[in-house]
Amino acid sequence: MPKVRVFVTLKPSLLDTAGRTVAGALHKLGYDELEEARIGKLIELEVKDYDEKRVKEMCDKLLANPVIEDYRLELVK
Amino acid sequence: MPKVRVFVTLKPSLLDTAGRTVAGALHKLGYDELEEARIGKLIELEVKDYDEKRVKEMCDKLLANPVIEDYRLELVK
Predict the structure, then answer these.
(1) Chain B residues within an 8 Å CB radius of A44
(2) ipTM of predicted assembly, 2 dp
(3) Is the pTM of this model over 0.80?
């Protein structure tokens, strides 16, 4: 069965507060090489038949917020 | 600067309640081709120099919960 990975990320111009917090915590643990951390979602969908148009519709309607997020699809098999 | 993507997913044997809810909502919207949805995290790290061992340490200590989650690294550039 085809599997699609949807990567949802906050638009680059927006401040990612969760990522900022994670970066701060990693600095406290001594990982000074870290410059930035940004946190997004990975949604794995298993579909009976893959239709890119319909998967994009799912993203626009429910999986991502197009006002503040970008998304990218990757067909696994 | 090297960028690493960390994909954190719930172990396959565990019930993903958030994914189940998303799948239910998509079915109600008429996407009957959807069989399963699972939700994970995508963490993008920008590091001054990439050392796989240290990034794996960050995952084990903070970014993932190794008891219930798996993770995978992808070096972008």
Answers:
(1) 9, 19, 36-40
(2) 0.91
(3) yes
